[in-house]
Amino acid sequence: GVTYLDNIGSALYCESQLENYLQELKGQLFANPHSRNASSKQTLQMIDQMRDRILDHFNTNSDDYRVIFTSGATDALKIIHDSFQWHAPYDNSDSMVNGNRLEGDHAENIQPCFCYLEDNHTSVIGIRQAVSRHVGMITCVDIEAVETADSTGIHNIEIDNGDTTNCTINHLFAYPAQSNFSGRKYPLQWIDRIQRTQLVPNCVKIREKDRWYVLLDAASYISTSPLDLGRYKPDFVPISFYKLFGFPTGLGALIVRNNAINVLRKQYFGGGTIQTCLYHDDFVSFKTVPHDRYEDGTVAFLDIIALKYGFDCLCGIARDMDAVCNHTFSITRYTYQNMLKLCHYNCEPLCHIYGESDYSNSTHQGPVINFNLLDSKGNFIGYSQVSKLAEMYKIELRTGCFCNLGQCQKSLGLSSAGLLHNFQSGHICGDDIDLIDGKPTGSIRISIGYLSSFEDSDRFIKFLEECFVEFLVESESKEDNIEIDSKEIHFNVLKPSIPKLQRIVLYPVKSCNGFEVDSWPIGPRGLLYDRSWMIVNESGVCLNLKQEPKMYNIRPKINLEDKLLILDCEGVQSLLLPLSYDMPDQFAISASVCQSRVCGDKVNGIDCGDEASLWLSKVLQRTVRLIMQHDNSKRSTKSRTSNDERQPILSLANTAQILLISSTSATILYKTILKMNAFEKSPVSTIATVDSLCDRFRANLIIQGGQPFAEDCWKYIKIGHCRFTITGPCTRCHIICIDPATKTINKDPLKALMKLRGKKVFIM
């Protein structure tokens, strides 16, 4: 039931592929190829056969290229990082070996150059960390500079490393066959021109004895396009096999041209790579066969054997890679054309698509669409919100910058100062901060694979239309008339009242039902005992309501007078547990809080014992344990209120100490859901009242009165003698879509919230 649109991230694997591989493992014994027994020899033979099959897939053979197995494309690039020789004593032969130095050219001081295209994966850019210790010039070029040989698009980082007069200089030019950001394909004809110094930065001095090598990053390209190494001959080609047919992961290769292998100089040596070495003297002799020399330790021989069934599956489904290319591009073009047709009620486009391609030619464009979404006023919609809604629709896509900050920066129109500003504002790669000052920090990418279908595209377009295309809804009364402008949302509500505290709700056990009180003490982590317990599975990972909706049946209560936590559930006798345990620190256990916004946080907790475990396991019908947060657990809030303020410590809450929601604002959301259902002719909403809608947000404080969404601008609130600082908006996503009564997922609240005003409810 999943619509998978992240094929550039990883291709899908086939059922037959896994079944046939498993049968192979059941029927044969494979052993360490470094051994010399019969099984080892058979394993080694199959590994060598796979090297030949890989070269055959790329229309070449061992006369021209060698395959060095790695853990992936990034590991292949690291070999270049560690081994590429930028300076080599000059020798007349094609091989870069130690030879007699030539005299002359004393006046010259030529520096080697590492040149890379702006549109490169981060793993390629990482080579410059080693380059900076050896090279005089690091050059980043954009596509226009390469095509026009115009120096205006060339950015140099110069490092003076002294005279290199009598050395042969080895330069390296790195570019992708296909952008992993936009799917743009770069000309393979560049390879020969670069090697013949016809297409190199004009700031580099050219000498006859120097060499230009080409590193072609083909990891993205090979997943759907044919790479002909018999026709185009780059010197180094890093690949990952999971991008080709999904399995195995953790296996890639560096395909090296034979006449370029000697420009690499092995530094580190591991098991299996040497002929001999002396332990008491500094002497080592490496093996002469390239893959024997560079494959440190035992290769992943079982994974290498699995490649056979990946190639078999690919060939069984598609005639050849040209057929894969045509199929994937047809779906991509169909999707692109339908995305262009999506407009809001005022004819403003929904999709802002990055790149210059019109998707008319698969020679220049791969099966990738990179975009952001706009509302009816032209404001960007955060990509994190799109991703979370897509998950509700079981649509898998990718968001962020895709480990390609260069092209991301260019496409989004960000300067280097802008990137630094985003970083200083708290944004890092892989987080959920999607908009800063209204501008996107990344984008959305969908990619088509050889197992994709036109139905996948249709489901994706339907998702965009249902969730993000804005429509006009006629209001039945002036009281709830909604006017949206480009900066904020105004609600014309008659006679706004003064906000008052309506309800106080505790959630003692994370993701279980709430416990409503009239008054409650405040502790160091927020409301006393709020979210102080969590239910964990056998692996120690905290369960949440989305994973286990039956948790809502558990009704915790706190008896302060008797110092008890009481757990109730219909049909089960109540469980009474102490509010504290007199237990030394050495009995505390460490468990992960959750796998969402606090992913990675470790929490010291106390196991509440077998009685609690048996009670909860009976209710949830799975083996679980109850963990209480230990007093020494120190988690801090995720939102920063001021650089000068000490960050408050957290309970097991995701983001902040206390969550607040306005029932006045929730009323507008409730009416929007009803109108949206009527407009879309959907079934009647299962949300019966505004209070039941508020309960889905699992807020601690529910206020009533005032203007809807006035809380957006609040800096603090005061309730009685207690003053609370507003620390910022809290993203509530999947939880509000879970119907507590039926334990099913209904997307209406999140869809309405996105259409109405974005993502904000507030935390304190």
Topology summary:
Elements: E1 3-4, H1 15-27, H2 38-57, E2 65-70, H3 73-83, E3 87-89, E4 113-117, H4 122-125, H5 128-131, E5 137-141, H6 143-148, E6 154-158, E7 167-176, H7 190-195, E8 211-217, E9 236-240, H8 242-245, E10 252-257, E11 274-278, E12 283-286, H9 290-294, H10 301-317, H11 321-340, E13 351-353, E14 368-374, E15 380-381, H12 383-392, E16 395-396, E17 398-400, H13 405-412, H14 416-424, E18 435-436, E19 439-440, E20 443-447, H15 454-468, E21 482-484, E22 489-491, E23 500-506, E24 515-517, E25 522-523, E26 526-527, E27 533-536, E28 555-559, E29 564-569, E30 572-578, E31 589-592, E32 602-607, H16 610-620, E33 625-629, E34 635-636, E35 649-650, E36 659-662, H17 663-680, H18 690-696, E37 701-704, E38 716-719, E39 722-725, E40 728-731, E41 738-739, E42 744-745, H19 748-756, E43 760-763
Parallel strand pairs: 1-16, 4-5, 4-7, 7-8, 36-37
Antiparallel strand pairs: 2-10, 3-7, 5-6, 9-10, 11-12, 13-14, 14-15, 14-20, 17-20, 18-19, 21-22, 23-24, 23-37, 25-26, 27-33, 28-29, 29-30, 31-32, 32-33, 34-35, 36-43, 38-39, 40-43, 41-42
Helix pairs in contact: 1-10, 2-10, 11-15, 17-18, 17-19
Please provide a written account of the structure.
It is a single chain. Strand 25 (522-523) and strand 26 (526-527) form a beta hairpin. Among the domains are: 321-468, Aspartate Aminotransferase, domain 1 (Alpha-Beta Complex); 505-629, no CATH class; 660-763, no CATH class. 42% of the residues are buried. Mean pLDDT is 84; it is low at 90-108, 158-164, 475-494, 583-599, 640-644 and 758-764. With 764 residues, it is of the alpha+beta class. Strands 3, 4, 5, 6, 7 and 8 form a six-stranded mixed β-sheet that branches. The chain has a six-stranded mixed β-sheet with strand order 24-23-37-36-43-40. Strands 13, 14, 15, 17 and 20 form a five-stranded antiparallel β-sheet that branches. The chain contains 19 helices and 43 strands. The longest helix has 20 residues, at 38-57.
